[in-house]
């Protein structure tokens, strides 16, 4: 015997996370049913329960919708947070996706530490998401569609209703006498998701009544497959890492199958907090960097980030300009020295240098007398011996004495003269690049 709508929702909410709960509340049917069900739970209230409405300002009734949410929450004796966001298009997608992106950015930024954001996505939403991603040519990660749980800002996102249909939520709302908002834009088939909901899925259900359940099952199977792939990716990434977390061994990457290599590259870039690789990014790295000569300085740049090949390694980092060739500044070490384009030089463990020194950019041909040596070495060869990549050398600040003697290159190399002075005081230089 099928569960009643109230029992079905209660079952979905049976295992509440042991954290404060925040319901993403639009004022519509789905989130209204979820909020009402959680408000009826003594456990949810005891843990801390609130609602959060994101005001996009896209509809003339947006203020009235926020007022509706405030009235419902007051009736349930729940705190309501209202966030106004600016919806910016221009990412190659439509207003639906732009609003969703702004909404999730607000959630990620404002969620409390350890708090769980509870969203009311259901089985019908999952079917729409799966079909949209199929039409975009997504792989297993995308076809896993909406995950039940994932990290979100300082907390966690939870979708407990993915096994329930919209019809079940509607029956629950009607039985409980709930009020909700019907967004008129949901009836516009010009939007991709609405087109699937209004035209495509009803037609599929005529022939295959269990289509929604089948789509949900496929998404769950894809999620399991994606998890297995993810575990393999993590192992492969660990095997390709160098001592520098921003670098991977090209030799180790070339030993991987191409499909695994592409996944590892994307995982690495994400772990570094860099913008996601564009669609052709992994292929560009494969074609232009993996087999480049050790000294070729091949690179692939996108959205302010860059991957470079040098020697056996791939290096990934934000793009930063070299120091201006004419940059020079006096520095006595008493305070940190701000560097052009960001970064800082600091003297730790000593109040100041014995006399003001000159910080400047490389110009070529510099020589340095290293500790334990009696004759000078070219700075270029000394940095090459340390394995400092060429682009880092171009950002490397130098420190010279008034007589022109080179004393330091960032915090990578000290001259014998400066090294002795620092050791006597237990001091050191810190170069923040």
TrEMBL record:
Q: Report the EC code(s) recorded for this entry.
A: 6.3.4.19
What keywords does the record list, in alphabetical order? ATP-binding, Cytoplasm, Ligase, Nucleotide-binding, tRNA processing
Q: Which GO terms describe its biological process?
A: tRNA modification
Residue ranges of the Lysidine-tRNA(Ile) synthetase C-terminal domain? 357-431
Its main subcellular localisation, reduced to a broad class, is cytoplasm
Q: What class of enzyme is it?
A: ligase
Q: Name one GO molecular function term.
A: ATP binding
Its annotated compartments are:
Cytoplasm
Q: Is the tRNA processing keyword given for this protein?
A: yes
Q: What is a single cellular component term in the Gene Ontology annotation?
A: cytoplasm
Q: Which reaction does it catalyse?
A: cytidine(34) in tRNA(Ile2) + L-lysine + ATP = lysidine(34) in tRNA(Ile2) + AMP + diphosphate + H(+)
> A Pfam family matched by this chain, by name?
TilS
Q: Which residues bind ATP?
A: 26-31
**Lineage: superkingdom:** Bacteria
User: Which InterPro entries does the record match to this protein?
Assistant: Lysidine-tRNA-synth_C, Rossmann-like_a/b/a_fold, TilS/TtcA_N, tRNA_Ile_lys_synt, tRNA_Ile_lys_synt_N, tRNA_Ile_lys_synt_subst-bd
Q: Which residues form a coiled coil?
A: none
Query: Domain text from the record?
Result: The N-terminal region contains the highly conserved SGGXDS motif, predicted to be a P-loop motif involved in ATP binding.
What job does this protein perform? Ligates lysine onto the cytidine present at position 34 of the AUA codon-specific tRNA(Ile) that contains the anticodon CAU, in an ATP-dependent manner. Cytidine is converted to lysidine, thus changing the amino acid specificity of the tRNA from methionine to isoleucine.
Q: Which family does it belong to?
A: Belongs to the tRNA(Ile)-lysidine synthase family.
Protein name as catalogued: tRNA(Ile)-lysidine synthase
- Source organism per entry reads Lysobacter firmicutimachus
Which lineage do the record's taxonomy fields give for this organism? Answer: Bacteria, Pseudomonadati, Pseudomonadota, Gammaproteobacteria, Lysobacterales
* Gene name per UniProt: tilS
């Amino acid at each position: 015997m099928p569960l009643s709508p109230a029992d079905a929702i209660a079952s979905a909410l049976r295992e509440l996370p042991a954290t404060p709960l925040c319901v993403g509340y639009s004022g519509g049917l789905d989130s209204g049913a979820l909020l009402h069900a959680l408000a009826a739970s003594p456990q949810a209230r005891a843990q801390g329960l609130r609602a959060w409405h994101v005001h996009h300002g896209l509809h003339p009734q947006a203020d009235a919708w926020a007022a509706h949410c405030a009235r419902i929450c007051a009736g349930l004796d729940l705190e309501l947070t209202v966030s106004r966001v600016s919806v910016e298009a221009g990412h190659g997608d439509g207003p639906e996706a732009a609003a969703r992106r702004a909404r999730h950015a607000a959630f990620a930024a404002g969620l409390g530490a350890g708090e769980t954001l509870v969203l009311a996505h259901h089985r019908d939403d999952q079917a729409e998401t799966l079909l949209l991603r199929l039409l975009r040519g997504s792989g297993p990660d995308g076809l896993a569609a909406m995950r039940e749980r994932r990290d979100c800002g300082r907390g966690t996102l939870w979708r407990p209703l993915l096994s329930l249909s919209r019809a079940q939520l509607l029956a629950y709302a009607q039985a409980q006498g709930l009020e909700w908002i019907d967004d008129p834009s949901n009836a516009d088939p010009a939007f991709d998701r609405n087109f699937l909901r209004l035209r495509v899925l009803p037609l599929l259900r005529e022939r295959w009544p269990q289509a929604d359940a089948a789509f949900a099952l496929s998404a769950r199977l894809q999620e399991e497959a994606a998890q297995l792939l993810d575990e393999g990716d993590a192992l492969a990434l660990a095997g390709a890492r160098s001592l520098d977390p921003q670098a991977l061994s090209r030799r180790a990457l070339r030993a991987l199958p191409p499909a695994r290599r592409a996944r590892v590259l994307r995982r690495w870039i994400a772990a570094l907090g860099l913008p996601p690789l564009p669609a052709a990014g992994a292929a560009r790295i494969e074609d232009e960097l993996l087999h480049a000569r050790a000294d070729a300085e091949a690179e692939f740049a996108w959205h302010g980030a860059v991957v470079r090949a040098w020697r056996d390694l791939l290096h990934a980092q934000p793009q930063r300009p070299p120091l201006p060739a004419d940059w020079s500044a006096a520095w006595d070490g008493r305070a940190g020295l701000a560097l052009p384009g960001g970064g800082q030089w600091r003297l730790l463990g000593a109040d100041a240098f014995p006399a003001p020194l000159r910080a400047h950019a490389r110009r070529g041909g510099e020589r340095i007398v290293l500790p334990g040596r009696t004759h000078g070495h070219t700075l270029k060869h000394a940095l090459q011996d340390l394995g400092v990549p060429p682009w880092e050398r171009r950002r490397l600040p130098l420190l010279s004495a008034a007589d022109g003697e080179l004393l330091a290159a960032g915090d990578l190399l000290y001259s014998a003269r400066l090294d002795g002075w620092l050791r006597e005081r237990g001091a050191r230089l810190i170069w923040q690049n």
